Amino acid sequence: MAADRGSGVALDRITDPLERLFLRCHRDELLPLAELVAVKEAGVGLGLLARNLARATRRLARHGLVNAMFGRGDGPPWTEVLATMTGQRLVGYDEVEEAELRIVREVQAVRWGALAVGEREALWTSLGLAGSPPEAGADAMTEAQSQLGRAFGYVMTQARTGVFKPSRLPLLLVLAAIPGLACVLQPILMVLALSTFAWTFRADPARLEAVVLHVARLRQVVVRRITIGFVGSPSTGKDAGIRALFGVDSGNISPVAGSTKRVNIQRVPGATALYVVNTPGLGDVVQAITDEAKEVLAHIDVYLYVVNAEGGVQARELADYRACVASGKPVLALVNKVDLLRPRDRDRYLADAREKLKAGAGDFLAVAFDPMPELSPYPIGMEELRAWLEATLIELGKDPGELPLLPIRQPTF
Q1: For the ranges 64-73, 176-185, 396-405, the one whose mean pLDDT is highest
Q2: CA-wise closest residue to 18 among 87, 81, 101, 90
Q3: Which of 62, 174, 376, 393 is geometrically suited to a Cys-Cys bond with 398, CB 3.0 to 4.6 A?
Q4: What distance in Å separates the CA atoms of residue 162 and residue 302, rounded to the nearest whole number?
Q5: Residue 25, Cβ neighbours under 10 Å: how many?
């Protein structure tokens, strides 16, 4: 039974697509939406916050007067809200993302038309798009989608939608509330006040549109953005592992202990939003740059904990590994440089390392990111590592297609 990260709520028991989405988000990612729909977040756990946000979001699609007179309730289903906004007869649960992105596309097309020529060119360039930007919004979105491909939804939902500021109490309602003035102008003011009241509590399309953009952005982040944390003591081979698995050369491949002294974040070239985080160990990082480390580590989706086969599992490494496990995120223990172990010692050493880490058989792997050339011209264990990452990302609801392909079949050890 899959549970979300942090709330302990079983996701397979949640049928509402909005609540399921919010449960898969990091709590801090939900705060802008909570402000937008006026949901209290202070002192509220992720599970309750997700439920309250889902209800408040759906209620925005219902006439405000109905909410005020007949109780708030849960509001219409999100699929029904999207069907109404897109003009479709029906939106299925498997069509939610597509419907949200259709709304995003239409909104961005309208906004595009309001931009000056220089603003369009600057935005076009910032999106990494080639050629001259089309003048018409619909044409711009078509061309952007053609160039961005699967990254279109993620890229186009990253622009800030702003925070909706409710209008102040209408002047007519204020005047009607003044006893003396109300007595003199009562016949006229009361009619106008009631009309204004009904208008004030109408379903607000602008606010609902802003909320849909927020929800679409969260969904794209949940599905497309992947943050993989390489953790381990200095000189365990983290940089070599990042190069072997993702083709990212940090220029920090070094046998000198202590070469990685801070959190290093890199976006994998060619991926929509696949990030690799290299950190030397949770203890040192948190002490040195507490705020940055906590923010970065809180958004890691998967931990790859690297241990040097030559040195064995040290007490500090055991503490860091347990901290990764305690986060509730998936953790794969990687014993690197196994090519340097004598064949007669290998099985005994691996069994001892796994016992110390208390790692499950499926979460423990022997690798050699930069093996001795006479043993293998290619990194060892990459196919198994890639398979573990794919299965784990699918379980997390992520798109495993973001992972770069291994160029050739590589031998196992």
Answers
A1: 396-405
A2: 81
A3: 393
A4: 31
A5: 21
Q: Order of strands, edge to edge, in the sheet holding 302-308?
A: 264-267, 274-279, 226-231, 302-308, 331-336, 364-366
Which DSSP helix (H) or strand (E) runs through 291? helix 290-298
Residue owning tokens 């982040």: 221
Q: How far apart are the first and last CA of the chain?
A: 33
Burial class (CB in 10 A: 0-12, 13-18, 19+), 6: middle
Task: State the pairing for strand pair 364-366/302-308.
Answer: unpaired
pLDDT tens, residue by residue, 357-383: 999 989 999 999 988 888 888 899 999
Task: With beta carbons less than 8 A apart as the criterion, state whether 75 and 39 touch.
Answer: no
What pTM was computed for the model? 0.74
User: What is the C-alpha separation between 270 and 404, in angstroms, rounded?
Assistant: 8
Distance CA 108, CA 131 (A): 19
| b/e code 256-281 from CB counts within 10 Å (16+ = b) | eeeebeebbeeebeebbbbbbbbbbb
Both tokens of residue 61? 């699609």
Q: Is 365 helix (H, G, I), strand (E, B) or coil?
A: strand
Residue type, 150: R
d(CA 34, CA 161): 14
Structure tokens at 180: 């003396």
Q: Determine the distance from the C-alpha atom of residue 49 to the mean position of all C-alpha atoms in its chain, rounded to a whole number.
A: 17
Amino acid at 29: E
The pLDDT-based confidence of 202 (bands split at 50, 70, 90) is very low
Q: Render pLDDT for 77-106 as a digit per residue (tens, 0 to 9).
A: 999 999 988 888 888 888 999 999 999 999
- Whose CA is closest to 389, among 377, 374, 405? 405
Across the chain, which distance is largest between two alpha carbons, in Å? 101
**Which option is the CATH number for 225-402: 1.10.760.10, 3.40.50.300, 3.40.50.720, 3.30.420.40?**
3.40.50.300
Please check whether residue 242 is in contact with residue 385, taking contact to mean a CB–CB distance below 8 angstroms.
no
**What's the token pair of residue 360?**
């499950």
Structural domain boundaries in the chain = 11-164+202-222, 171-200, 225-402
Neighbours of 402 (CB within 10 A): 20
Q: What tens digit of pLDDT does each residue of 150-185 get? A: 889 998 888 553 333 333 333 333 333 344 444 444
Whole-angstrom distance, CA of residue 174 vs CA of residue 182: 10
